[in-house]
């Protein structure tokens, strides 16, 4: 289909600091005991996109990601892993790999997207409108823990965070305005020309840019080339393209047109114009064309380009793992309501307990739980809505609620963990009480300590 | 015959759509009385001429059917189609009945045939296609069964050739044999001279037929037997019988298959010309089957208007999302094809010319990117590919006739490729062919039409146009450029309001315009001096198949004695005959009629549309009878609608080969 896929996997993200480390870069963070990158890769594989470029920040991380991919997808996908220096931003990452981009359209996917929206839909919308950029937009996920009867969940109110302010045309096909929620303090700046051309604009705050874009290669490269100071796709490139859609500064160089119409050099020029006119008249005019036609008389010919939005339906799951809160949310959802994403088959009790794991007597594992292979649990434990990784050793009388426990974790007897994330190789001694904490990899929590809302990491040597 | 008819009980009538409870649906062909052959077919019954094609037949009394009255003014919905029709009718009613079920045809020959009415009403329903498919099927059902009761059917037999060899009125009727039953006129005509067969002869005949069938199957892979071969078999059998009874049957079949070689290609070609039989969407099993093959996951609309059940109608809205999500998964589909399909489905491209051009350009891309897989030949493989793409397009939106003609052209060109050409040569040859088709059949044709039509625009004219036809627009703009002083009235209709775009462009060019909706057409018609209309297709009986509302405009113009000029490229002409716009039409999104354009939040029908009593009908096309059309402007000149069949017949080869 002439689409090239770039997965921007990221590196060691600062926002996820206690969770990510040199050993575990962001793409390899486990979501339901699978690296988060695998969700994207599998979604792409389902769509028959098997030639991918995975861009990772940092050489180290790239090696690790590359190693994991070659192990897991050795004969399924054809993946090139490219390492870019850290802090170049998404735009910089694309700049770095620009010469590898050859296809007509480029699909740029963030590696931390956990979604079941088919990428094909974005691609199709992109092609249908012959757009310069198409962005996937989904409704904002509900964050915060689900009410599970636990006392601690009270102070967390379920409120959708504001991710983006998005302006759409009445048909909800074109992107007229986009800004991230943090940027918008009080006022929005919308070019008058766009408003006048469209006539009506819906501004919605409950939508989120899912960071899956289809770009026209020529345009993307040109913008990256011209605007060297652009750092991020989301904050710079996309708003720029959206803002200038009626006053296109992109020359387009006739590239897309030449590709499409290059074949009929035989036909005379006038025939060509008639054909294009027939086609243009037959299609329902978008505001772009209307705007163009109005301004055709003016001396400077206005060029326009289209920025489309593909709005994922509400029934689809779509979330980005870009914060600690999102990490626990996604973990909860993948084994909970969006469990078709996890790729596991759930037992009758709506949970997954690996056959090699051992449970002590009177230990209960509730629904929406996951227990990785080789994990041992003592007696009288209770697990609710939590993910427990591989080869964990959990003592008796342990309570785990709404938490993520990664691999090789040791939990002492009588400890209680709520709403927390415990990274790999953490040792938690007896009678520890953790609430809404993040424990970095390899940390040792001493016996009897009590923590609430803290982030505990080992000191870097 | 009349006696037989007299004994008729009340015919079992399948009632469809609008019907008045106590009347029969108009039996169009059941006048068994002697026809007044003096009157030419087109001049009689003026009443019939002024009726619309989408007419509800007025209630007829039972007696009308039975009384052998000398041709009452029949409520034929359309001008008389062709002379042979009536001739057939007075010869033998029972035989003419175009039942689709071969078994029924056998029944029809039994003296107690009581289902004439039944067959007829089916016939009337089946509409446009009927004549051609029937003749083949009817004849084909005979050879298997008829031999056994020759005395009964001898009368019928005697009359049959009359009918079968009759296809005068419509150009080249035989071009459309039913795909499976393939032995049209031959057996009957050959059988004609010999009235009776002995038992032995009959058995031999049957056996030889069986052998011939087997022989035909073996090499031809289930392809049907060519007609003349059958004759050969019969004849040779007879020879064998006169010489010796147990002559080797193998020889027969060998001879048969030898004969077949030559005829087969001809037969094949004929079949290729024929459009595939239209799927009837009220046939449940077929719909199921089609669904399994289909790429697009479509849910059939639940509430459908009874009369239009045979047309495809899907829940709008679900298809696009589904197709989009599969964009990258459908491997064999070329992206260009997919894009165009999506655009059809989303309504981004509409209009016969534009759709055709978009499709051809997509095909061009396909051909360019095509490489013949190993162990396959280009003509065969590419044709198969294109067929699959065409069926994909059909799923996105039913093909227009212009597209059908273009596809036919393309396939023909591929089939006619010289095998000595290399792959790249053949590819470039196909590409140039496509280009030529677009240029000659569409662009140049448009230019010629514009030249012709704008010669008809005089100073001071008030021109009425309906909807948005690209040729008509070109005519108006060209006349404007020539400096003619005229005014344009753009008539539009809901729900698509295509006229708005046309109006915008005309006004931008400085043409004086008036904009109104179709419900006001009778008020504005006073001042109109000419009506220019576009067409989706012109059928060989002169019927103009066009955007719904065109017929209404044409009729109003006719009533006001305003000339109606149709602008239509000749590649959109079709040899089909269609009398109404029911049997073949397209259904749009039914919800669109309840919506207010520009105000998506307003839908006055929202609250009632969920009740089971409301069915929404959004027809896309209608058929304007030739009577309302004063002139058709095509690339071959300005012609009356009665000359359409001439163009179809004379230039058809020309169309396909350029």
From TrEMBL, chain A:
Name of this protein: Translation initiation factor eIF2B subunit gamma
Alphabetized Pfam families for the sequence: LbH_EIF2B, NTP_transferase
EIF2B subunit epsilon/gamma LbH domain boundaries: 355-447
Subcellular location: Cytoplasm, Cytosol
KW DNA-binding (keyword) present: no
Function (record text): Acts as a component of the translation initiation factor 2B (eIF2B) complex, which catalyzes the exchange of GDP for GTP on the eukaryotic initiation factor 2 (eIF2) complex gamma subunit. Its guanine nucleotide exchange factor activity is repressed when bound to eIF2 complex phosphorylated on the alpha subunit, thereby limiting the amount of methionyl-initiator methionine tRNA available to the ribosome and consequently global translation is repressed.
Main location: cytoplasm
The organism of origin for this protein: Linum tenue
Domain spans labelled Nucleotidyl transferase: 5-243
GO biological process per UniProt: cytoplasmic translational initiation
Subunit details: Component of the translation initiation factor 2B (eIF2B) complex which is a heterodecamer of two sets of five different subunits: alpha, beta, gamma, delta and epsilon. Subunits alpha, beta and delta comprise a regulatory subcomplex and subunits epsilon and gamma comprise a catalytic subcomplex. Within the complex, the hexameric regulatory complex resides at the center, with the two heterodimeric catalytic subcomplexes bound on opposite sides.
InterPro entries: eIF2B_gamma (IPR051960), LbH_EIF2B3/5 (IPR056764), NTP_transferase_dom (IPR005835), Nucleotide-diphossugar_trans (IPR029044)
Any one GO CC term of the record: cytosol
TrEMBL record, chain B:
InterPro entries: IF-2B-related, IF_2B-like_C, NagB/RpiA_transferase-like
Family: Belongs to the eIF-2B alpha/beta/delta subunits family.
Highest taxon of the lineage: Eukaryota
Matches recorded under Pfam families: IF-2B
Source organism (scientific name): Linum tenue
Biased composition (Pro residues): 72-82
Lineage, broadest ranks: Eukaryota, Viridiplantae, Streptophyta, Embryophyta, Tracheophyta
SUPFAM superfamilies named in the record: NagB/RpiA/CoA transferase-like
Region of interest (Disordered), ranges: 1-295
Biased composition (Low complexity): 30-53
Compositional bias of kind Polar residues: 132-144
Protein name: Translation initiation factor eIF2B subunit delta
Biased composition (Basic and acidic residues): 257-288
């Amino acid at each position: 289909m002439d689409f090239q896929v770039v997965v921007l996997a990221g590196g060691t993200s600062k926002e996820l600091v206690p969770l990510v480390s040199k050993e575990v870069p962001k793409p390899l963070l486990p979501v339901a005991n699978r690296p988060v990158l695998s969700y994207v890769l599998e979604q792409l594989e389902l769509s028959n996109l098997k030639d991918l470029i995975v861009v990772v920040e940092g050489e180290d991380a790239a090696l690790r990601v590359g190693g994991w991919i070659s192990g897991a997808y050795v004969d399924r996908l054809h993946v090139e892993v490219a390492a870019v220096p850290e802090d170049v931003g998404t735009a910089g990452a694309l700049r770095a790999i620009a010469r590898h981009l050859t296809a007509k359209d480029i699909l740029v996917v963030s590696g931390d997207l956990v979604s079941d929206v088919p990428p094909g839909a974005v691609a199709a919308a992109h092609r249908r409108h012959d757009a310069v950029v198409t962005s996937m937009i989904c409704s904002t996920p509900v964050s915060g823990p689900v009410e599970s009867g636990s006392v601690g969940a009270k102070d967390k109110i379920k409120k959708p965070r504001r991710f983006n302010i998005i302006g759409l045309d009445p048909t909800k096909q074109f992107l007229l305005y986009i800004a991230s929620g943090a940027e918008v303090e009080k006022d929005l700046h919308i070019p008058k020309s766009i408003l006048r051309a469209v006539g009506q604009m819906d501004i919605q705050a409950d939508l989120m840019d899912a960071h899956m874009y289809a770009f026209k290669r020529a345009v993307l490269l040109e913008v990256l080339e011209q605007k060297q100071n652009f750092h991020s796709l989301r904050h710079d490139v996309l708003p720029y393209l959206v803002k200038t859609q009626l006053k296109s500064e992109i020359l387009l160089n006739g590239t897309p047109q030449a590709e499409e119409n290059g074949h009929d050099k035989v036909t005379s020029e006038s025939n060509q114009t008639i054909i294009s006119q027939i086609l243009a008249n037959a299609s329902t005019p978008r505001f772009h064309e209307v705007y163009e036609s109005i301004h055709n008389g003016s001396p400077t010919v206005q060029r326009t380009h289209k920025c489309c939005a593909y709005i994922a339906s509400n029934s689809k799951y779509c979330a980005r793992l870009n914060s600690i809160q999102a990490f626990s949310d996604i973990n909860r959802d993948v084994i909970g309501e969006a469990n078709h994403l996890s790729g596991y088959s759930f037992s009758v009790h709506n949970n997954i307990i690996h056959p090699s794991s051992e449970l002590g007597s009177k230990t209960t594992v509730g629904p929406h739980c996951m227990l990785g292979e080789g994990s041992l649990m003592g007696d009288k434990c209770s697990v609710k809505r939590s993910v427990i990784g591989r080869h964990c050793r959990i003592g008796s009388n342990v309570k785990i609620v709404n938490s993520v426990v990664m691999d090789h974790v040791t939990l002492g007897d009588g400890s209680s963990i709520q709403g927390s994330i415990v990274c790999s190789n953490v040792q938690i001694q007896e009678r520890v009480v953790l609430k809404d904490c993040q424990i970095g990899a390899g940390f040792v929590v001493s016996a009897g300590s009590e923590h609430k809302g803290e982030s505990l990491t080992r000191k870097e040597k | 015959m009349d006696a037989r008819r007299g004994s008729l009980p009340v015919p079992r009538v399948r009632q469809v759509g609008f019907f008045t409870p106590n009347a029969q649906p108009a039996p169009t062909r059941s006048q068994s009385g002697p026809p007044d052959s003096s009157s030419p077919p087109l001049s009689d019954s003026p009443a019939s001429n002024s009726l619309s094609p989408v007419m509800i037949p007025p209630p007829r009394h039972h007696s009308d059917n039975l009384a052998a009255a000398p041709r009452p003014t029949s409520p034929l919905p359309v001008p008389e189609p062709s002379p042979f029709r009536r001739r057939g009718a007075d010869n033998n009613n029972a035989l003419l009945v175009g039942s689709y079920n071969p078994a029924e045809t056998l029944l029809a020959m039994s003296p107690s045939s009581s289902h004439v009415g039944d067959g007829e009403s089916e016939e009337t329903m089946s509409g446009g296609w009927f004549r051609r498919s029937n003749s083949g099927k009817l004849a084909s059902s005979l050879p298997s069964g008829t031999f056994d009761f020759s005395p009964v059917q001898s009368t019928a037999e005697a009359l049959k050739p009359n009918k079968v060899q009759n296809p005068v009125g419509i150009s080249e009727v035989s071009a459309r044999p039913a795909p499976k039953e393939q032995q049209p006129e031959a057996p009957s005509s050959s059988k004609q001279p010999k009235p009776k067969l002995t038992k032995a002869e009959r058995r031999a005949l049957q056996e030889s037929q069986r052998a011939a069938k087997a022989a035909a199957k073996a090499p031809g892979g289930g392809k049907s037997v060519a007609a003349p071969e059958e004759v050969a078999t019969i004849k040779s059998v007879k020879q064998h019988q006169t010489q010796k009874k147990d002559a080797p049957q193998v020889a027969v079949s060998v001879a048969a298959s030898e004969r077949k070689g030559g005829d087969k290609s001809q037969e094949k070609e004929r079949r290729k010309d024929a459009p595939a039989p239209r799927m009837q969407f009220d046939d449940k099993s077929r719909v199921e089957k089609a669904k399994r093959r289909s790429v697009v996951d479509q849910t059939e609309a639940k509430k459908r208007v009874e009369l239009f059940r045979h047309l495809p109608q899907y829940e709008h809205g679900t298809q696009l999302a589904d197709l989009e999500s599969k964009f990258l998964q459908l491997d064999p589909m070329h992206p260009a094809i997919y894009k165009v399909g999506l655009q059809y489905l989303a309504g981004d491209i509409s209009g016969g010319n534009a759709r055709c051009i978009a499709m051809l350009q997509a095909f061009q891309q396909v051909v360019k990117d095509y490489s013949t897989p190993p162990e396959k030949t280009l003509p065969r493989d590419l044709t198969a590919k294109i067929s699959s793409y065409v069926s994909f397009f059909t799923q996105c939106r039913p093909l227009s006739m212009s597209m059908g003609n273009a596809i036919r052209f393309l396939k023909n060109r591929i089939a006619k490729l010289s095998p000595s050409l290399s792959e790249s040569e053949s590819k470039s040859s196909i590409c140039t062919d496509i280009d030529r088709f677009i240029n000659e059949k569409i662009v140049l044709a448009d230019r010629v039409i514009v030249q012709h039509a704008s010669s008809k625009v005089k100073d001071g004219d008030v021109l009425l146009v309906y909807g948005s036809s690209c040729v008509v627009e070109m005519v108006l703009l060209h006349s404007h450029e020539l400096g003619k002083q005229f005014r344009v009235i753009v008539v539009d209709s809901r729900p698509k309001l295509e006229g708005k775009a046309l109006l915008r462009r005309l006004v931008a060019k400085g043409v004086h315009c008036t904009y109104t909706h179709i419900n006001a057409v009778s008020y504005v018609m006073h001042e109109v001096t000419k009506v220019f209309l576009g067409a989706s297709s012109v059928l060989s009986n002169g019927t103009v198949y066009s955007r719904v509302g065109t017929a209404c405009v044409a009729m109003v113009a006719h009533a006001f004695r305003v000339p109606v000029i149709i602008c239509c490229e000749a590649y959109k002409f079709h040899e089909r005959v269609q009398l109404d716009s029911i049997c073949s039409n397209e259904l749009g999104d039914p919800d669109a009629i309840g919506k207010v354009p520009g105000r998506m939040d307003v839908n006055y029908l929202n609250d009632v549309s969920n009740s089971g009593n409301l069915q929404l009908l959004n027809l896309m096309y209608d058929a304007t009878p030739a009577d309302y059309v004063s002139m058709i402007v095509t690339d071959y000149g300005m012609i009356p609608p009665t000359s359409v069949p001439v163009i179809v017949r004379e230039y058809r080869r020309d169309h396909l080969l350029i």
